[in-house]
Write a structure and sequence with these properties.
It is a single chain. The chain is of the alpha+beta class. It has one domain (about 1-25, about 30-75). The chain has one helix and two strands, in the order ββα. The protein has a two-stranded antiparallel ribbon. It is rod-shaped.
């Protein structure tokens, strides 16, 4: 799985470029379908954890940028 974190001015985007197994693959048998479903549920759980990490990093980056802006404003005054 490839995750890209993009910033455009004040907004952030997280894009997933590749998922394995493919979300549209349903398997050729019931056992394979059950295995793929379990893998999918595990990936979704990992994605939720990763999302929390990314949101935390974004918040920290925003706080640092705001502090840097305040420091720059104070230096100009």
């Amino acid at each position: 799985m490839y995750v890209v974190w993009m910033q455009h001015y004040d907004s952030f985007q997280v894009r997933i470029h590749q998922l394995t197994p493919d979300l549209t693959d349903v398997g050729t048998s019931l056992d394979e379908a059950k295995t793929l479903r379990q893998e999918h549920q595990e990936l979704v759980a990992k994605l939720h954890v990763s999302t929390a990490v990314v949101v935390g990093a974004a918040a920290a980056a925003a706080a640092t940028a705001a502090a840097d802006d305040d420091d720059n404003d104070n230096q100009l005054a």
